[in-house]
Amino acid sequence: MPSAGPRIELRRTDENAAEISALAERFGGAVGIDGVLAALNRQARPADAPGSAVTRAYAWQERDNWDSRWWPQGITWSSDVAARQGVVVTSAYAKNRVGITLASRIAVVDLASLRYRHVLLVRPMVWRGRAIMRPLRVHAGGIVWYGPSYLHVAGARRGIFACRMEDVLEVPPSRATLGHHYVLPVRFAYDAAAGDMRYSFLSLDRSVDPPEIVAGEYGKDTMPTRLVRYQLDGDHLATHTEGGSAPSLFEDGGVSHMQGAVTVGGTWYVTQSRGPSGLGQLRVGRPGAFTKIRDALPNGPEDITYWPARDELWSLTEHPGSRFFFAMDRRQFGTSVH
Length: 338
Hints:
By secondary structure, the protein is mainly beta. The chain is built from three helices and 26 strands.
């Protein structure tokens, strides 16, 4: 069992297989991610985004750019599916006027056309013999699409939620779906109830074998800013003899206002926010010894991911009116492909 500091552990829950099957039967079968890609209904566009490290950027459709309810957070890409090498997936959460999280969703983006569509994340259940669903109410501060199937979603103190892309359903828009035409049920979770880690963001390190999930904490003032890594066993987190998953690496050298972290060949890249009006910063190096790159990112940077085939880092921003998803050429930071 890896040693990773006090009380940091995840335990996988039972699968919601029966509930998802019941939902699929109710709505005529799953359409999967391919069903979403065949029905993209919104249009992003190339944009000029501030930040010295940005090499190209894209803006959302205006209603999404200015939406005060939904706030973009996580980003990942279609890692192991050859036919989807030009697909980016982002996450967002909805909050009310007092800041209570109401729901979370993903946006599926075809980079070739810049068309995209929102998909609501839901908890499947059977109530009084009827298959129903409720919005997944998490911050969704980071996401990882690993393998052809699994999307992992950061759930703060609740741990990590796992969805299977083949489970996407096409449903009639309603109050239950918050007007969404497509939903993605949660299949299981990695419950953090046994630990005290906050899973604020996620990424994937492909430069190690097997690949590892990287997670960390947003913190300010006296809050902890820890960084951890979990080994993967196939599509799932590796477990130790007691049945839980403990980090293979624990780092206590994070920085305040971390919004995302990814590692490539031992080098860490960390996004750091500076409020709604200050340009974001990028930290490069290793925990406890980061180099700060000032004004590298647009204001409000969030999660970060690495695209090996392009040797690019990708991130996105959250504040209304200045929302972008964007790429950064990693070679500008003095590193090479590992």
